[in-house]
Amino acid sequence: MSQQFLLNYAQAISELNRHWEPHSGQVPIGQAMFMYGYESLFVQCGRKFGKTEIGIYLAWLIAKVFPGSPIYYVAPFSVQAREIVWRPGRMQHFGPREWLQSDPNNTDMSLTFKNGSFIKCDGSENYERHRGTFYKFCIYEEFKDHRPEFYRAMRPNASVLQGIDLFIGSPPDRDCDYVDVMKEHKEQKDKFHLHAPTWTNPHISREWLRREKEQLYRKGDGDVWEREYAAIYVKGGASKVFPMLNENMVVDDGVMRAQIRRERKDIEWLYVTDPGVASVFGGIAVAYNRHTKKIRVVREIYESDQKLITVKQIGRRIISQMEELHDDRDDFFCVYDEAETWFASEMLDHFGIHFAPTRKSANKKERGISLLKDIMLGGLIEFSNACPFIFKELDNYFKDKNGNIPKVGDHLIDCLRYTLASLNYEMNEGQKWEEEEKDDLPRRHTIERDLEDLGVDWEDKWS
Questions:
Q1: d(C-alpha 52, C-alpha 265), whole Å
Q2: Residue 193 forms part of a structural domain
Q3: Which of the listed residues 161, 179, 208 is the one where a domain comes to its end?
Q4: Counted domains in the chain
Q5: Residue 112 has pLDDT above 70, yes or no
Q6: How many Cβ atoms are within 10 Å of 96's Cβ, its own excluded?
Q7: pLDDT tens digits for 76-88?
Q8: The domain containing residue 140 runs over which residues?
């Protein structure tokens, strides 16, 4: 850095700090940016950390020390940007008024500086308008709620002005772009990651935090504390449809197939499909043990490439999986979503394979979901590690804001429901899944046990 730049930087810091000064937990962000030259920063922070303030502070600072800089503050939605930083005046009145060229533009939420820089506030839903937008600094506030298209449209423009990205916000409760970008920043040396729990803000009462933690854990909302205050990525919570799902249900493919071979006399084979032309084609191969009632998902098809979703291509993949798993593909009972009659007709025409309809109209989705939960709790389902997509769908299946079960991201989940309906699967009434206490006594009759009430010392009697 030139001496002149350092002088301008020091002066800008001095003037900004008269209005607002970063606390000790926020200082590393500025250091990473200005001292160490990181151009991509990820701040995984808790509530009350001060993410909005540090974002605005850095926006004003960059606007001042880098003349002619285009700077963007992006909230999940433009209405949020207006309500969070513009309507209260947090953005436009944050720094020295004399730095600005003119009054703030309330229509497009922008500030113009005398040195040619500008700051504009926007929402991630407006990603189309930012294709080709050059920028020096972009703040992605509450990144977990952003439209993923915005980052993907914006990032290629960074190279022109050596753009700096700041991703900031608390962790989500499910997999999304936030998790992927967070992992990149943790793993790649040229990117900066900061874990900043709420208590890194020295202005927050430790006693208040203690009471908040106790209250949340008492209510059974410990995961909320972990995410919102400890800033730890923890899946789940009340909105998760399958909280009982766990990685112990995933079994090595070789081990699973060996177990199926040992149980082959009790195994029924199914291939269940959810044909989709405009979205995703889903299909699963299932081995069902009619004696133990265990369901094993052995193979899957999850195809989103429209060029590959044709009956001929999908049909060949289905047949290949059948033949890999079992000697006689005719032993498979094949099922399809009854709304997609074209699929059954074409599979019969091209491959001579009969697919039966699901009868889903007679089986409510909520009942199928509830039954699937019981099966998981009973330890009656396993997934081959060759089937990553079905586990991911189940793991990322959450109720919407109104508490309703969603109708998206469930192609393979639907296949599971169709499987249960096809098997007429039912749990035994009153069946308990808690492990029974072990009885150490052998289950056999002895003279001593049957006649113990006679008071005879049998050990002495037979000695």
A1: 63
A2: yes
A3: 208
A4: 2
A5: yes
A6: 13
A7: 999 999 999 999 9
A8: 3-208
